[in-house]
Write a structure and sequence with these properties.
The protein is mainly beta. It has a single domain, classed as Porin (Beta Barrel), CATH 2.40.160.20. It has one helix and eight strands. Strands 1-2-3-4-5-6-7-8 form an eight-stranded antiparallel β-barrel. A hairpin with a 6-residue loop joins strand 5 and strand 6.
Length: 181
């Protein structure tokens, strides 16, 4: 039920902001991304052995996103990430396998080939949990920073770092993207 409401809210928000964005600029832009990343909980690692080495106990993730510019320096868009299953699950309620969220980004500098930005997102996390309820949905918000490093006029690589979440997470990701005008 929470997932359905979240998805409806995200769809309405995207439609509303996209319509506003068409009127906000004469040259609309979209950037599309394929993302490879790594995430873990700050406390002890999502997939760890309980030894406190959370950098060795994270989950790899793969996904994609799209961001639509609603103003010259502000973009919004959906993101979806699939996580690799753990061999050793630490938490009984938080073992993320899928996330979907809506991100908003603010470009700090758009005048060079390196364009830093702030990003914040809110959405759902689908976790595999222990019985009797093997699937658990929860809401999660994250914030962080990143930079687009242009390798050509429209192609870029974008490293990002995020923190946040219901269970405190840290996420590092890198995207390969294309700017469409």
């Amino acid at each position: 039920m929470i997932l359905r409401r979240s998805l409806v809210f995200l769809a309405v928000a995207v439609c509303f902001l996209c319509v506003m964005g068409v009127h906000a600029q004469t040259n609309p832009r979209v950037d599309l991304r394929i993302t490879l990343g790594w995430r873990t909980t700050v406390a002890d690692g999502t997939c760890g052995e309980g030894d406190g080495h959370f950098f060795r106990s994270g989950q790899f993730e793969l996904g994609g996103s799209a961001r639509y510019y609603v103003a010259s320096r502000v973009s919004i868009g959906p993101e979806i990430q699939f996580m690799k299953p753990c061999k050793n699950q630490i938490y009984t309620y938080y073992h993320p396998r899928l996330t979907g969220k809506m991100n908003a980004a603010f470009d700090l500098n758009r005048s060079s080939r390196v364009q830093p930005y702030l990003v914040a997102g809110f959405g759902f996390v689908r976790s595999k949990t222990t019985p009797p309820d093997p699937v658990h949905y929860s809401l999660e918000g994250t914030g962080g920073l990143g930079a687009r490093l242009f390798v050509s006029d429209r192609t870029f690589v974008a490293p990002e770092a995020h923190v946040g979440g219901r269970t405190q997470i840290i996420r590092f990701a890198s995207s390969l993207g294309r700017l469409l005008e």
